[in-house]
Model the fold of this input.
Amino acid sequence: MDAQMAKLWHFANRDAKMSDEQSSAPQACRKEKMPPVDVESYTQPFLSFISENPTTFHAVATVCKRLESHGFTNLSERESWTGKLSKGGRYCFTRNGSSVIAFVVGENYESGNGASVIASHIDALTTRVKPIPTLSSKAGYLQLGVAPYAGALNNTWWDRDLGIGGRVLVKDSKTGKIETKLVKLGWPIARIPTLAPHFGAAADLSHPNKETEMVPIIGLDNADSADDSGNKHKRQSFSILGGAGTFTATQPERLVKAIAGEMNIQDYSSIVNWELELFDTQPAQLGGLDKEFIFAGRVDDKLCSFAAIEALIASSLTDTDSSTIKIVGCFDDEEIGSLLRQGAHSNLLPSALERICEAFSGKGCGANCVSQMYANSFMISADVSHAVNPNFMGVYLENHAPRLNTGIAIQADPNGHTTTDGISTAFLQRVADKCDAKLQVFQIRNDSRSGGTVGPMLSSAMGMRAIDAGLPQLSMHSIRATIGSKDPGLGVKLFKGFFDHFEEVDAEFR
Done:
C-alpha cells in the first residue's frame, strides 16, 4: 500500500475504533438506531428498473414516478420555489427529461445549514439515431444511420439483438402545443452482423470502421432484385409520410410507421422530432450457481443512481428530525464530459441548493449564506468502480481490487481525478461504522490510465467536501456487465446510512 493510502486508512481505522459513546459528537446530534436495510430486497427491483428503462429518458421518468409515489412533489425550474417549499417536504424536478434532482428538507432545517449530497450519473453508453438516418439499401438490406454516444459501438455491440426507443415530440392538433412522449418498441429491430472468419483478414473486427462496418441492418428490401425469369421488380413508389417538408419525410418510412403505430399516432405530420437510440434488448437477470451475480446492460451508472434514489426514499421515511437537506442528483451526459445544461458541470445542482437556501431565508440568500451552506455540506460522488477480474489479476494494484457482493469501493487517485482525501475517507468510514457497512478501496496502477467522473467538477464549483465512492462492476463499458446480486442493496445500505448519520458524523469533524 502506498504511503498516501496508508495514512488515509490509518486515519479511517483510528476513527472507526471510537465507540459512539466516546465520540466527540454532541449528544443532541446522535440518532437513535435506525432499522436495518434488507439488502436482498433490492435485487429484483433493480432487475426490473434496468430491463424496463432502456433509455435515460425512460429511467428518469420512472425515477420521478417512484418519488411521487412516496410523497415527493414535482417542481418546475421555470417557477419560483419561494413559498412552495416547507420543512419536512419532499421534492423533485428534472431538466431536459434526462437529469433528475430529488431532495428532502429537514424538519429543523435553517438557511445556511449543510446538505448531505449524493451525485451520480444516469446516462449510459448507447448508439443514437442520426438526424437524417435514411440510407440507400444495399444488397436488399435496409440499414439505419447511427452514431456512438461516448464509447458505444465497441466490439461488444456485434451480433446483439438491438431494440429502439427514446422520446418523441408530438404536436397536439387541437391546442398546437408540443408534447414529449416516450416510446420503445417491444421487439429487437436491428443487428450489427459480424463477418464470418472464413473471409480471412477482412473478418478481423478488432478495429472496425464505425461509419462503414458497424451499420445496423433493420429490414429487407429486395424490390430491386430479379425474379426467376430474369425480370427486375420495380421498386414500389411510396408517398412522403407526413407530407413534404415535415420531419417524418426525412426518416426511414418503415421506422416512422413502426414508431407511430406503437404510439397510436395516425397523423405522421404531428411528429415534430425525436431522439431515438438503440439498446440491447436482453433483460437483466440473475446468474451464477447460487444466483450471486446480476448480468445486465446499462449498469454504468444506473446502479448507483438507483441505490441513491432508494436510499433517499428510505431515509425520508425513518429520519424525521433532520436539520439539513438530503439531496440526490442523477445527471445526464457524464459519459461525454458533463458539459451540457443537464450535465454535472452545469448549474443544475448548485442552483437547486441555492434556491432551497433562499426559500428558507427571511433576508434573502446572499453569498454569505450560500457559502456557509456549502461549507457545512458533504458529497458522495457515486459512480461505479472496477471489480477485480480473476483472469487479469496483473492489471490491479495490490490491496486495491474491489470484490462483488462486498460493498462500496472508495476511489482514490493521487492526481485529482477523484475528490477522495484522508478526511473524506475517514468521514465515510464513520458513516459505514454506524450503519454496519463495509468499505473497499480502488486505485489504478501507475502504468494505467485513470478515469474520472462528476465529483471534482461539482466539489470544486461549490467548495464542498467530497469523496468518490461507488459499487464495483465487471466489464465496464461493455454492452453487458456483471455485478453482485447484493450490490444494489449494499449501495442503498451505505447511502441511507450517509443520509441518516450525516449530522452526527459531521459534528465529529468540526
Summary: The two ends are 29 Å apart (CA to CA). The first strand starts at residue 73 and ends at 74. The chain has a mean pLDDT of 92.
